[in-house]
Amino acid sequence: MADQKTLIEKEEVVIRFSGDSGDGMQLTGTQFSNTSALYGNDVSTFPDYPAEIRAPQGTVGGVSGFQLHFGSKLVTNPGDYCDVLVAMNPAALKANLRWVKPGGTIIVNIDTFNDKNLEKAGYKENPIPEYRKGDYNIVEAPITTLTQGAMQDITTDNKSVLRTRNMFALGMTYFMFNRTLDYTIDFLNRKFGKKPDVAQGNKLVLQAGFNYAETIEVLASRRVNVVPAKQEKGVYRNINGNTATAWGLIAAAEKAKLELFCGSYPITPATDILIELAARKDLGVKTFQAEDEIAGICTAIGASFGGDLAVTSTSGPGLSLKSEAIGLAVMTELPLVVVNVQRGGPSTGLPTKTEQSDLYQALYGRNGECPAVVVAASTPSDCFKYAFESARIALEHMTPVILLTDGFIANGTEPWRIPAMSSLPEIKPPFAKKGEKYQPYARDTEKLNRFWAIPGTPGLEHRLGGLEKMNVTGTVSYVPENHDVMTNLREQKVKNIENYIPKQTVFGDDKGDLLVVSWGGTYGHVFSAVDSMRKNGHDIHMCHINYINPLPSNIGEIFSRYKRIVVCEINLGQLVNYLRVKHQDFKYLQYNKMMGLPFTVNELVEHFTKILQEK
Amino acid sequence: MSDLKIQYKPADFKSDQEVRWCPGCGDHAILNSMLKAMANIGCPKEKVVVVSGIGCSSRFPYYVSTYGFHGIHGRAAAIASGLKVANPDLCVWQITGDGDAMAIGGNHFIHEIRRNINLNIVLFNNEIYGLTKGQYSPTSKKGAISNTSPFGTIERPFRPGELVMGAQGRFFARTIDMMVQLSADVLEAAARFEGAAVVEALVNCVIFNDATHEMFSAKENRDDRTIVLRHGEKMIFGKEKNKGLVLKGFTLKVVTIGEDGYTIDDILTHDAGEPNPAIHHLLSNMQYPEYPVALGVIREVKDDTYENLLVQQIADVQANTKIKKMDDLLKSGGIWEVK
């Protein structure tokens, strides 16, 4: 460790690693965030990568980025702008310069700044001399050359050398922020256990990057330390939204004493849920990689009929394909969790970018009067909670539940205080009783759920299906009055769930001027914006919604206590229009953005400030 | 399937629902054969589940008194797959038609077969869309006139057996609605087979496609125009039992025993258990009038089932892991404590 006296203490730092999509920037960012989390910082990350696996090398379109924000205080989002930008080539610099704070540090791999790469990035000449005139500290590091040097005793194979350059950059940032190399060395040993040469090469390059940074005056003299955040006592881990979602579902199965079945088809950015569940055979999870999205949900419906906690995971276009089958689950009133990791749409849209534009689809995207429960998670780690909640509601109320997350929280990570399983509620599905006459559509008098009779149980034989059924008895029925009764029962059953979810809470005061309403994955940015404005004395409050259908029963009462309401979402106004229908007594302002990117705290503060000024 | 044998009568599997197929529809006969087969198989009734898609035949689950699931168009294969994988102990029947399995559900059909999930798949083939009142189907003969092909279809039909072979199917059988005992026999064989078993039931749609199979299915010609294959027996057919099949070059040939120098020894012996599907493919593709239409169990090759492999894989992983419950997983890998 360097001399502590040279350290500058900071509360928070944002780093953005960027390079070609094959440069290993996601891995680099993940390593830095895990190291920082382990050190005790609060961390939030934002991977930003192209849909192409190896997009045209050296082009702006092929740039893969990973931004991470770590601090000694509460960190709720990955930060708008970065203090340090690592750019592995000219295209990465071009694509990311706009995200660098004034006075920020830019590390470029100067070896890649040749005519060919500059041209590919769309630069007419080397831009660095011009950028030097701006308010940046630019470090021109010969990363390729120094990596070759560090590797010379291991290999001279150019491909292997190029593949380890990310470790050099990582080593440099570890020096800059006073981190140890332990976590990454341990990771490399494990990852390349069977290839000791590769492990050794990576470790040498990592150390070389660290050592190099120490020799650069501008870095050595500004070495920064971010002390651990004050966190609640407990055991922590870093987790991303997709893993948290998978784990929430497994936890729910355990609490319901059921097997978990996931029928699914790979789709960005939801695939990691299926990947994690497929790895969890240790906990008895059954995954079925189906031939398409429709088979994914239909196998899940079959498994649900068979008595499993059944789930299917997808993203927007996949949800479209599943629509008819969700209707079948609504009609047969079977428990089912449909996880939709939203991405930019319509159609194939922006597969790797984030958006909140599937809310209408989740609420309304089916034929017939077809109510499904809609729940949304707000941060990477609370995907666990809301996946668990989705399963609880599905099982206890016999209904499909659509859980909305998004590409931003699905791939983003943050430290998470691990819950003990004993702290989670038991889940009690309403099983039909053996020995009693079973009527498939007889209902619980309060919740209105029907009862679950599992094939294999003697005496409970019955038939379900997509055709309208006679109330109580469950025989096929075309009786007009019965359809009216059944339609209303299905609607009321979902509405009644408002009595079995938590009441809506508000961050801020009980009443006031501006209430900011948000939902889902925008939580971190909106919270930061509102929190900072409150600290500056503004009359601003926040209502972040996770239960969307049904809404918490006290929402209208909350809305009535504020002068103005602004609804912020990454779409053209889907929640706001839903609220305009559900709670018509209020006037809603809205703030929307459609860039495939999260909000920035900055733009939110600006917008809210403007509203508050309009008295 | 359970070893526990229960004595059932066909009527034990009959539901109290009125059967709403048209009078004269071939589906009635298959239902009767199925009730017989279910009684014979003796799987406890509560473990029997009938899953279907959409179409005339897919009303089937309402007409048996077992567990049943009437799904959505084309998706019975997927629903049945999920059900069987979730609960391998069940005896799962999938009822489907030529529209349900060959058109909208074609993808699921080939994949359930490829995976070899232990399902009993009964494909009611009447070569027409009946429930939507008479449009041609993927199995309608080329040139078939229907309300969506008023000048005759210009599409070549699928042959279900060929699709089954192409998807690496291990069991394929064929029957005709009117042959109630044969139907009951092949349905029972399908149920006893551990793997994806497809039974193509040639059924007559009396309203929209009457007599489509008549050329070979009519009683007076049936013996000469069909061949009932039985494992280990010579491929002989005809009223006089004097016709047979021989292999000539890469194809099958119909010969008359005692003519052109052919003797009984030249006639092929049916081996349903041969893993190489070449002959089964030829047999399943035989079309009248060039050939007799093959009936009975054409292919029956034992192999691992998807659900057994999955259960085994889970058991293997569980035997070698430290993660026994969710708490273990939560605390695995990179964790740290804040004190």
Please give the number of β-strands of chain A: 22
- Main sheet properties of chain A: 7 strands, mixed
DSSP helix count of chain B?
Answer: 11
How is the biggest beta sheet of chain B arranged? 8 strands, mixed
What's the N-to-C terminus distance of chain B? 55 Å
Number of helices of chain A: 22
Low-confidence stretches of chain A: none
Structural class of chain B: alpha/beta
Can you walk through the features of this model?
The complex is a heterodimer of chains A (615) and B (339). Chain A has 615 residues and is an alpha/beta fold. In chain A, the strands form five sheets. Chain A has a seven-stranded mixed beta sheet, sandwiched between helices. Chain A starts with 7 loop residues before the first strand and ends with a helix. Chain B has a domain at 10-212: Rossmann fold, CATH 3.40.50. The longest helix of chain B has 15 residues, at 27-41. The model of chain B has no long low-confidence stretch (mean pLDDT 96). Chains A and B meet through helix 1, strand 9, helix 11, helix 13 and helix 14 of A and strand 2, helix 2, helix 4, helix 10 and helix 11 of B. Strand 9 of chain A pairs antiparallel with strand 12 of chain B.
Furnish the topology, listing elements before pairings.
The complex is a heterodimer of chains A (615) and B (339).
Chain A: E1 8-9, E2 12-20, H1 25-39, E3 42-48, E4 63-71, E5 82-87, H2 90-96, E6 100-109, H3 115-120, H4 128-132, E7 137-141, H5 143-151, H6 158-163, H7 165-176, H8 182-191, H9 196-215, H10 217-220, E8 224-225, E9 234-240, H11 241-256, E10 260-264, H12 271-279, E11 286-289, H13 293-305, E12 309-314, H14 316-332, E13 336-342, H15 359-364, E14 373-376, H16 382-397, E15 400-406, H17 407-411, E16 413-417, E17 463-465, H18 480-495, E18 512-519, H19 523-535, E19 540-545, E20 547-549, H20 555-559, E21 562-569, H21 574-582, E22 588-592, H22 601-613
Parallel strand pairs in A: 1-8, 2-5, 5-6, 6-7, 10-11, 10-12, 12-13, 13-15, 14-15, 18-19, 18-21, 21-22
Antiparallel strand pairs in A: 2-4, 3-4, 9-16, 14-20
Chain B: H1 27-41, E1 48-52, E2 67-70, H2 76-86, E3 91-97, H3 98-104, H4 106-115, E4 120-125, H5 160-166, E5 171-176, H6 180-192, E6 197-202, H7 214-217, H8 219-225, E7 226-229, E8 236-237, E9 243-248, E10 251-256, H9 278-284, E11 293-300, H10 306-319, H11 326-330, E12 335-338
Helix pairs in contact in B: 1-6, 3-4
